[in-house]
Amino acid sequence: MKPELLRWALLTLVMCPLLLFAREPLVLDRTSGPYLLNSHISIFKDSKGSLTIREIAGAAGQQLFERNSIRMADSDMYSSVHWIKAELINPDSKDKELILEVGYPFYDQVELYLFDANGQGLSRKVNANYPVYKRELSSRHFLFRLDIPARQYVTAYLRLKTKGFMPMPIRLWQPEQLLSKLNLEQYIYGLFYGVLALLITYNFLVLVNSWDKIYLYYIASMACLVAIIMSIDGFAFEFIWRYYPSLSDKSLPFFLFAGVIGFSLLGRRFLGTRRNTPIIDYVLIAIMSIAATGAFLSLLLPYDIMVPFGMGIAFVCAVTSLITGAVSLNRAVFSVQYYLMSWMLLVLGIFYFVLQEMGFIPSNFYTEYSAYIGASFGGMIMSLGIADRMRMLERENLLAQSVMETRQKFSNTFEKFVPKQFISRKKAHDFEEISLGNFDSGNITILFSDVRAFTELSELMTPDEVFRFLNSYLSRMEPPIQKHGGFVDKFIGDAIMALFELDSERKSAHSAILAAIDMQRALVLYNKHRRKVSYPPIQTGIGIHSGEVMIGTVGSAERMDFTAIGNAVNISSRLEGLTKYYGARIIVSRDTMDLLEDRDIFKHRILDWLRVKGKKEPVEIYEILENDPVKVQEAKIKAETYIAHGLSYRHQKDFESAVKWFKKGALMFPKDQALKFHYQTCARLLSKKVARNWDGAIDMDQK
C-alpha cells in the first residue's frame, strides 16, 4: 500500500466517530470557494444560553445537534443562543488560510471555537458593541482568520447570540476571493447609494425652488430608506455609528417607523387621498399615528420588541400603499402609474431578496442584490412620477388660470353692467350663479342725480356729441359715489341711481350725503372745463332718501336686470325732481337726516312738508347747503326762519299769515327760489278750499 493511501486510511479511521455526528464535512479543495456552510453545519438551539463549549464539544453535547435545513439556514427567526458546528477538511499538502464570515451585523455576540484532531482548541469572541475598528478584521460583518493545517480536519463551533432575528449567512472565503467580493461590493453599493444620494439632492434643489411639500416628503422617505438599508447591511454600524455601536440597535427600528411616516405622507400628497380616497386617507393617518408612537418607543424599548413591530407596520404601510395606488389608478389620479410601479419594484425587490436568503430561489447577482435594485429603480420612478405629476398639475393650473382669466374678463365686463355689490349681496360666487327672481330686502340710502334741462341741451347736439357728453359727465360723477362706499345701480340717460349699503344705516346716510356734496364739487370742475371749450355750464339736482327696498333680479329668462325697487326708490327720484322748484342742489328727506348722528355736521335748512307724486304719505325735506358760496349759505340759513314760520301757519290752514311770512322773506332774500315757490303755492291755496282733515302737506303733482 502506498504511503499516501495509508495516511488517508488512518485519517478516515480517526474521523469516523466524529462524522457520525457532523454529516457532510466540508472538503476544502484547491479550486472551490467561497464555501457556503449552510449544507455542512449542524445547529443546536440553547434556549437558556447556559451551556459551555466543553459541554457542547463533549459526547453528550454532540447528540444535541441537528442537521441544518438548507431553506431555513439563512432565515431562522429566533431570539436566543444558537450553536453552529461545522467539520472542515483540508486535503491539500499545504496549509490553507481562510476567512470565516458571519454575514449579519446584528448579532449581540459571536464566539468562535476551533478544535484540531487532537482536541486542542482556541477561542475568539466578538461582541456587537465592540467597535468595528478594534476587531480582528475591520468589517461590518463578523470576520475571523482560519488557518487549516495540511491534510488535517478541524471542528469549528460558533456561538451566536442575539435578541432579534437569527439569520445564518456563514461563508468561508479565500482572502483573494473576499477581497474581490469587497471590491465588487464597493462598486455596487457605491452605485446604489450614489443613485439615491443623487435623487435626494435633485429633489432637494427642486424643493428649494418650488417649496412643494411633496418633495420634502420624498426626501424624508428616501433618507429613511437609505438609513434602513444601511442599518440592515451594516454600513451604518461600520461608518455612522463607528464610535457609538450601541446606537445601531436603536437606529433600525427608529428609521423603520420614520420611513412609514414619510412614505405615508408622500402617498397622501401624491395621490390626494384626502380628496380622492378619504377612507384610505384615514387608514394612512392611523398608520402614521402608530408609527409616530413606535418611533418614540424605539428609543426606549429593546430591539427585539421594536424591530418586529416596525416590520409589521412597514408591511401594512406597503400593502396599503399598493391598494391606494390600485384604487387611484381606476380614478385617473395624475401619474398614479409611476407611484404604483415604484412600490411594486420596491416590494418585489425585497420579496426576491428574502426568497434568496431563505434558499427558495438560487443565489445570483440579481437575487442577491434585488432589494438594492428595487429600491434604486423604485426611487427613480417615484421621482419621475413626482416630476410628471407636477408637470400635469402645472399644465392644469395654467389651463385653469387661462379659464379664470377668461372668466375674469367676462366677470369684469359683466360688472360694468351689473354692480359687483349686487352679486356679493346675493352671495353668488360667479355671474353664472345668478338666476331670475332672486331678491331680498334691506334698509339702504338711495341717491338720484339728474342734469337739469337735459332735453333742451341735447336738442342742440348731434347724437355723437350727446354720447360724448354723457360719457364725459357720468365718468366724473361715479368716482365720488365709489369713494364713499356707494355704487351705481344704473345710468338712466343723464340720470344716476346710486345705492349706499354700508355697515350701518347711519353710515349709509352719512356717506350718501358726502357723495352728493363731492358730486357737486366735481360738477364745478367739469363746468370749468366746459367753459374752456366754449360749452355752456350745466346744473344737476340730487335727491336722497333712506328706507326699505327690495333688491334682486327682474325681467325674463332671456333678459334680466339687477335693481332695487320700492317706495324708497320712488321717493328718492321724486326728491331729485323737486330740486328745480326749490332752487336746491341737494334735497334730503327727514328719514335720511334722522339717521345722522348729528344733523349739524352738514349745513342745512328745512324746505317743505309735502307729498310727492304718486305717494300718500307726506315727506319732510331739507336742503344741504355745503356747495353754496358762504354768503349764499348765510342768506339761506337766515331765510329759514321765514320758511319755518310760513310752514307753521300753512299747517294751521292760516294761509294769509303764511303768505305774509313767505312774501316778507322773499322781499328780504329775492334770490331765494324756495321762498318764491312757497309764496306762490300759498297764494294759490288762498283761492282753494282744502279739506278739514288736511295735514298741511302740499301735493306735488310735478316730477
UniProtKB/TrEMBL annotation:
InterPro entries: 7TMR_DISM_rcpt_extracell_dom1 (IPR011623), 7TMR_DISM_rcpt_extracell_dom2 (IPR011622), A/G_cyclase (IPR001054), Adenylyl/Guanylyl_Cyclase_3/4 (IPR050697), Nucleotide_cyclase (IPR029787), TPR_rpt (IPR019734). It comes from the Bacteria. The chain crosses the membrane at residues 187-208, 215-240, 252-271, 283-303, 309-329, 336-354, 369-387. Residues 445-576 form the Guanylate cyclase domain. One of its GO terms (biological process) is intracellular signal transduction. Keywords: Membrane, TPR repeat, Transmembrane, Transmembrane helix. One of its GO terms (molecular function) is adenylate cyclase activity. TPR repeats lie at residues 639-672. PROSITE patterns: GUANYLATE_CYCLASE_2, TPR. Pfam families: 7TMR-DISM_7TM, 7TMR-DISMED2, Guanylate_cyc. This is Guanylate cyclase domain-containing protein.
